[in-house]
Amino acid sequence: MNDAAAQVADRLSGAKRVLFVTGAGLSADSGLPTYRGVGGLYEDEDATEEGMAIEEALSGPMLLARPDVAWRHIARIEKACRGARPNRGHAVIAELERRFDVVVLTQNVDGFHAEAGSTKVIDIHGDVHRLKCTACSWKETVRDYSHLEVPPQCPVCGQLVRPDVVLFEEMLPTRKLLLLEAELSAGFDVAFSVGTSALFAYIAAPMAHLRSQGAFTVEVNPGESAVSHVVELVVRERAAAFLDAVAHAL
User: Fold this and answer.
1) pTM of this structure
2) Selected catalytic residue, list 73, 90, 113, 125
3) Contact indicator for 109, 126 with CB cutoff of 8 Å
4) What is the pLDDT of residues 99-150, one digit of tens each?
5) How many angstroms separate the first and last alpha carbons of the chain?
6) How far apart (Å, rounded) are the C-alpha atoms in residues 195 and 237?
7) Omega into 163 within 30° of 0, i.e. cis?
8) Is 73 a catalytic site residue?
């Protein structure tokens, strides 16, 4: 048996509330690329074909000024996700709800946690499958973008449609931040950081806070991250395989 998995299972055995903070490394086991938290499509490139950084091309201001540019890269990321499914890691997290009060804070926009069956998901960056009009109240959830003209127009008012995700230079949704704050205030017995470099403060801070509150904190990530020095246990393994080992050890 995996010693780390056995240790985690032992600490989970007495837990009631469990937090999972997840990033692109978890969905990598579904075959998705890991571009700086979204998908490795641009990791080795200094600039996009438009001659700008991907952070500029995929920004809120660019969506308004040049929707064709922003949507070109939004659609490219969605296409890289198309056909992929939740993996064993997502499934284990969902299955743990049978025994614990599980909350998921995810940076991923693929919607895999909900698809796998998790019911308390704070998708802080949104979901690429949810579309909304920038001018009216029209909204729709789609399986993929194969039927869309890019950039798409609202079928009700004809204005620009966008995915319900947080682009670069945009504010995080207040409602989700307040929900996260409420969940953290309620406390957790065990907290996992899974497949994320934790570069954003709102991703790293919960792990540091919960460690200071006495929670058992675990990082599952092949490489070092911003929380590696904070957590109690560091596991240098792929997410899906390790979470499966934990499930078998419980």
Assistant:
1) 0.92
2) 125
3) yes
4) 999 999 999 999 999 999 999 999 999 999 999 999 999 999 999 999 999 9
5) 11
6) 9
7) no
8) no
